[in-house]
Amino acid sequence: MKRMAWVLAATVLGLGIAHAAGKDDAARAIAAAVAKMKTAAALEDQWTPTVAAFKAAKAADAAGDYAKAEASAKRAEALAAASIAQARSQKHLWRNEVPR
């Protein structure tokens, strides 16, 4: 019962529960990163740190370090999401900078 309470508390607080990343976890994270990176590329706003994090994820995956691969892929996905948000906001914000 105590363990269940800790799991519930960790979930509610957003702490998550540590797990050993496996090959499937790394593959899912890499696939999610690829999807976000494609969207960023379509918006012509691909950041170089995103590409570097993705390359690190692929290298770690190839070396069998799935925990590092998952972490790097999640970083690449987060960076791609940030670049997407930036591209979308700049698409509208530039109008405020143009004199009328």
Describe this structure in words.
The chain is mainly alpha-helical. The protein has one domain. It is built from four helices and no strands. The longest helix is centred in the C-terminal third of the chain and has 32 residues, at 66-97. The relative contact order is 0.15.
**Uncertain stretches:** 1-18
Q: SSE order, as H and E?
A: HHHH
Q: How many domains would you count in the coordinates?
A: 1
Oligomer: single chain
- Figure out the total of helices: 4
Rg from Cα: 18 Å
Mean pLDDT: 82
How many runs of DSSP E, i.e. beta strands?
A: 0
Largest sheet: none
What characteristic shape results from the CA principal axes?
A: elongated
Strand content: under 5%
N-C termini distance: 66 Å
List keywords for this structure.
elongated, signal, SoxXA-binding protein SoxK, mainly alpha
List the helices and strands and how they pair.
Layout: H1 2-12, H2 23-42, H3 48-63, H4 66-97
Helix pairs in contact: 2-3, 2-4, 3-4
Quickly describe the structure:
This protein has 100 residues and is an all-alpha fold. It is built from four helices and no strands.
